[in-house]
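sorry to bug you again but im stuck and you know this stuff better than me. what follows is a protein written twice so to speak, once as letters and once as structure tokens for the fold. id like you to explain what the token line says about the fold, in plain words if possible. anything you notice is useful, everything is just below.
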Amino acid sequence: MNLQNSPQYLSPQALSASGAILLDVENFPLKLDLVKHLKPYCKYDITIKFAVANWQNSSIYKLDKYLHQQGYQLIHVPKDKNAADAQILTLGASLQLNYPQIKDVVIVSHDFIFNYLHQALQRQGCNTYKVYQQSGNVYIDDFICDRPAIITNVSKLEQQQNNKQKQNPEQIIKSKIERTLVKLSQQSKEQITLSKLCQEFKDKHKKSMSEVLKSHKLSDSPLSFIKKSCANKIIIENKNNTHYLSIIGS
């Protein structure tokens, strides 16, 4: 293998321009898909994500799994005053050296000290954005527009998360199955078989329906679960030992 052609050895010219997030978790302890919300505002796709915190802090430690699933590199700092700020400043100062393709940098914190990092990165040719929560809203400031734009409402976001948490596993899985069947029905004029539904479910959720059901001790088989929990939405027909599914009213 020619190492010079591997991703680690690509020249800056060969890398596609992209964006980075520097997240001060303790300053922004929200379960929010920032990449999705920032897409309309940033010029480049965000591919580099850092989340800095003292992960032993009881108020935010449960966010580590969520942020890891979102693709963040989790960085731990000790319980010292301004430790997270110092770490983010260090990361930001070395971004261009370690990731020369970075052209957008999002700093998620309202701390004044990061204004100096914004200015330094702008002098290096980066577009920078400040994201923060204030007065019940999440704002983005690109330092170009006259005023920050509202990304989302914190109360609305928390309500959505609370509603999701209140749903029990049976309701959540039932909803996923029904949505998957609706999608398949819209894509095909043919009747949907149980096996096709199970395959689509696995492709989308990375686990088979049987695995998900068994992990929650709900059922030994997808067919049994659908008969019991989805009877008000899904019709099952058995033709020549093949089960066909359809949405009621479709």
User: Anything to note?
Assistant: Residues 167-247 form a domain with the Nucleotidyltransferase; domain 5 fold (CATH 3.30.420.610).
